[in-house]
Predict the 3D structure of the following.
Amino acid sequence: MRVSVPATSANLGPGFDTLGLAIAMKNQVVIKPSKFHSVSLRGEGSNNPALKDNNMFISIFNDFYHNLTHKKRNFRFEFQNEVPLSRGLGSSSAVIVSAIASAYAIEGIKLEKQKLLNLALAYENHPDNITPAVMGGFNVATVQDNEVRFLNKSIPKVLKAVVVIPNRPISTQLSRKALPYKYSKEDVIYNISHSSLLTAAFMSENWDMLKCASQDMIHQKYRMKHMPELFDVQKTALSNGSLMSTLSGSGSTLFSVAYVDDSRKLEKALKQKFPHFKVFTCDFDNVGVRIDL
């Protein structure tokens, strides 16, 4: 059985803890019954042996598998990770979603995506991360009465994601601490209006509205101070064809949307100016978690 989950970009501009989308980079795991427990890890994180021994995926998988079956079985887990760790691209959400989905699927137990989302809330309480990991596409999401409520929209092929991954992380904890304790009424209204406009722009496919609608006053400028080069990355992106350019999650990745025809020029400009950062173009993912038995 193979389970794959896409990377995500959450906190989109003004959509703090609300708006997120899925990018076609995937973490995959193949699970096979085995006489002995064993783990192999390739790709992102493979240079860290501790991830094999202290693996969040296996811990969550075992908890759900035992609760569902009351059985103890050994498996071989083969991980192939494309989503970088601690760069704001949803690596934790990918682990959580794939572990829960795997525990159900390996026994042939049906699990609706809505239930998967609600189960994942116990480990990740930010719906803008887990919803695109499960559903794919663009998502506006909230939590109401301990359930994820969301609306989803597929992202058309005319758009590409251009991703800039810096050579060092921004601590999620430090990034949260950088935020003000209080906000002015003006800043709150600014973000509500822009978040609403950004949602409407995605839902109506009004792509020329993205640059205005993706402006933010409550989190990006505070977090990006931990890595000031990101302001220049964002400015360069918006000057070279990006329709919107926002901090991905809590950083340090900077995420842009561009028309297909503009994405090559944008990628080239970013690579030339930031040669020490990883820059690439990829599609969006409109499927979310996928299980192949």
